[in-house]
Known about the structure:
This protein is an alpha+beta fold and 458 residues long.
Amino acid sequence: MKRRLRAVLAAATLPLLIAGLLLAARPVAAASLTQVTNFGTNPTNLKMYIYVPDRVAAQPALLVLTHYCGGSAGAVFNGNGRDYATAADRYGYVIVVPEATRSEKCFDVSTPAALRRDGGGDSTGVMAMVAWARQRHNVDPARIVVSGFSSGAMMTNVLAAQYPDVFAAGSAFSGVPAGCFATTNGSLWNSQCSGGNLIKTAQQWGDQARAMYPGYTGRYPRMQLWHGATDTTLHYNNFGEEIKQWTGLHGLSQTPAFTDRPQSNWTRTRYGVTSAQATVEGIGISGVGHQLPMSGQLAYAITFLGLDGGTNPSPTPTPTPTPTVTPTPGTSGAVRGVGSGRCLDVSGVSQANGAAVQLWDCNNQNNQRWASTAAQELRVYGNKCLDVSGSGTTNGALVQIWDCNGQNNQKWRLNTDGTITAIGANKCLDVPNSATANGTRLAIWDCNGGANQRWTRS
């Protein structure tokens, strides 16, 4: 079986390995890919490598980059994943690169241990790497993302399914749905899945992913999926099955909300939110086999993952402006920023006191549904109130959620111009510096009527 696995993937991975060797000889910045040992729980003996750019952001994003079968951390970082490293130098994010050490150099996305949260498989070791990086580099918890190629794409799907409370988004090149490669005999290869013969409903694929983290009811990561239409290593059918799984997990229709062709042989479909950071995005590429990513494709992934601050590498439709409407007491719904187009969101779907309130892509989940009450509260989950931290009254005091208690730092006045005033401080709910990125923390500031202080109800 091991010989067969190596033979099947050799043709697909050899060009990537050669590219990695050639690119490794090029001069690089002073920062370099560095191995980390003793990073925590590591039941399958993975290796950990990390890249921290010379000019790292004060609160950087974190990208987990997973390699293909037969690959290595160095080969993917210096080869077909090199654009991620170049962008890290520009935008200041950190990259963690796990490396499989078993003879096939494939990630385990097949065994029962690998397909269960904290189950003792490869994903357990990867999450120890994430925890290590978070502790040492002040990582922004709202911008932890994952991307991978082939075996690494399969791992991308598995990590996003098992740890939806950690990852904000994923980008998988030439993968299969989470759980598709499951086996019961210890093998890491599933011919039925690789051949595109596992066809399920969106509900079935969603249930398979949900079983990896039983009891979880929060939102799942945004997902970008890429696949070559003539792929014979991991059949193109798997692309459609991935789309079923992730639209199902997000409760979306499988009918695209947006379709275009960024390049002549690409067909891109978007589901849910249709911006450059769509809820689910699929890019099928005609005339291409198991050889992704190709030149220029990672620029789209970098934007989708939010690693570049949201710059869009390709034109997208301009949304029709929504008129300013003051939320009506007693109603429940999303509160959308006029300047950002994003929604008032409780970070990580947390219900804990002190959980951050931020901007995030509107998704109509419970952590974005706010009810205004006769007591001048803005409630979420029914029992938590929008709260000014520490009863602060100064510009820049952050907002959070807290048990509703009737105090003035939880009272808000909904104004006819769309602004929302914190009554205790007599200041407005504000997006600092008019930022628009996912994960931007919200605060209060002197009322000025700017677009970053005006809100609409959808």
